[in-house]
Amino acid sequence: MTDGWDEYASSWDDRPDSKLYAEKAFASLVAQTDLRGVGWTSKRVLDFGCGTGLLAQKVAPYVGELIAVDTSEKMIAVLQSKEIPNVVAVHGNILGADHKSDDTDLGAGFDLIYASSVCGFLPDYEGAVNEFARLLRSGGHFIQWDWQASDGEEFGLSESKIRRVLESAKFRSIRVEQVFSLEADEQTMPVLIGAGIV
């Protein structure tokens, strides 16, 4: 979530693991929300920590408007170069203390907010989820995918932490479980989904 991600921007879309993660996240998003069903073409979506927009590209054809936000200027530049008609790419930190809602004209009233491999890197995960709950319309979905934390490691998030944070933010119909895994450096890296409805 810092400008340190800029160095990955030019090659991010060429990485097989990046593409596979986006494909698997999209498949689970469709299963969770029936995104391809009737009614989504008028919906408003926020892709938080969108990177180069690999997931946004898959979601955009099914929704009315997709706001894609990232703190990496170069990641946003790659997304903008794709010229996806209904995607508004925003460079900035919408959770920052100095952010004003009129800076990016985000407003509230999202039907879906998702964050793909982002929440585990946030300094205030719980505060972010509370803000997402505020930005959602009644009945709106929040979905996150994050690496599952291993015992004794600070990298990733645990099922119990995700569930606790979603419950604290008053989400209902909560789902937290391993949804897929990827192979990297000769090890299996499980990915958790955290989902809820306001």
Automatic annotation (TrEMBL):
GO MF annotation list: S-adenosylmethionine-dependent methyltransferase activity
All copies of domain Methyltransferase type, residue ranges: 46-143
Annotated SUPFAM superfamilies: S-adenosyl-L-methionine-dependent methyltransferases (SSF53335)
InterPro entries registered for this protein in UniProt: Methyltransf_11, SAM-dependent_MTases_sf
Keywords tagged on the record: Methyltransferase, Transferase
Pfam families associated with the record: Methyltransf_11 (PF08241)
GO biological process: methylation
UniProt protein name: Methyltransferase, putative
Native organism: Oceanicola granulosus (strain ATCC BAA-861 / DSM 15982 / KCTC 12143 / HTCC2516)
